[in-house]
């Protein structure tokens, strides 16, 4: 014969088991979602990193003072020495000079600063392009190295 104590304890134990099973099931499901959903992002990250490394090699070889990004889709460079060498007044003029004389488009650094004067010697190269486009741009940039 079951006592009141047995009736009170049994449903709690079954309920606890159900909670544990549901918890484990959700954890496994969540783990599957995390692992499977991150595969495309891991691939995308690797592709961007390869493109960054490709363009960064050219930018550095061309003589730009560059900062290697760790989570961006662009490379920021300092071009103060190029401004002096080519008699160009600032980043905006140098970006135009690169288009006209080298055939490579960049973004003037001053456009990213609250105080534009802080970016007057910087330009930005974006690398979400195909490898062929990056190689072509890199080869063109090598023409201005010292």
Strand portion? 5-15%
> Mind telling me the C-alpha Rg?
28 Å
> What's the quaternary structure here?
single chain
Shape: elongated
Sheet of most strands: 4 strands, antiparallel
Amino-to-carboxy terminus distance: 97 Å
Number of strands: 4
Counting structural domains, the number is: 1
Helical content band: 55-70%
**Strand order within the widest sheet?**
1-2-4-3
Would you state the CATH class? Answer: Alpha Beta
Give the helix/strand layout:
Layout: H1 4-61, E1 65-67, E2 74-78, H2 80-86, H3 91-101, E3 107-108, E4 122-126, H4 131-141
Antiparallel strand pairs: 1-2, 2-4, 3-4
Describe the protein:
- The structure is a single chain.
- The chain has 146 residues and is an alpha+beta fold.
- It has one domain (41-144): Aspartate Aminotransferase, domain 1.
- The chain has 4 helices and 4 strands, in the order αββααββα.
- A 4-stranded antiparallel sheet has the order 1-2-4-3, covered by helices on one side.
- β1 (65-67) and β2 form a beta hairpin.
- α1 runs parallel beside α4.
- The chain starts with a helix and ends in a 5-residue tail after the last helix.
- The mean pLDDT is 85.
Provide key terms for this protein:
4-stranded antiparallel β-sheet, Aspartate Aminotransferase, domain 1, 4 helices, alpha+beta, 146 residues, 4 strands, elongated
């Amino acid at each position: 014969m079951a006592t009141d104590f047995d009736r009170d304890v049994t449903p709690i134990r079954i309920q606890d088991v159900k909670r544990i099973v549901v918890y484990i099931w959700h954890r496994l499901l969540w783990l599957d979602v995390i692992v499977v959903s991150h595969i495309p992002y891991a691939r995308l990250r690797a592709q961007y990193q390869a493109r960054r490394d490709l363009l960064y090699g050219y930018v550095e070889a061309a003589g730009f003072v560059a900062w290697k990004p760790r989570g961006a889709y662009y490379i920021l460079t300092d071009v103060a020495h190029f401004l002096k060498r080519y008699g160009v007044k600032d980043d905006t003029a140098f970006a135009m000079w690169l288009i006209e004389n080298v055939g490579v488009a960049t973004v003037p650094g001053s456009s990213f600063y609250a105080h534009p004067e802080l970016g007057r010697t910087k330009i930005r190269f974006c690398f979400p392009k195909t490898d062929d486009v990056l190689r072509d741009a890199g080869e063109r940039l090598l023409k201005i190295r010292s």
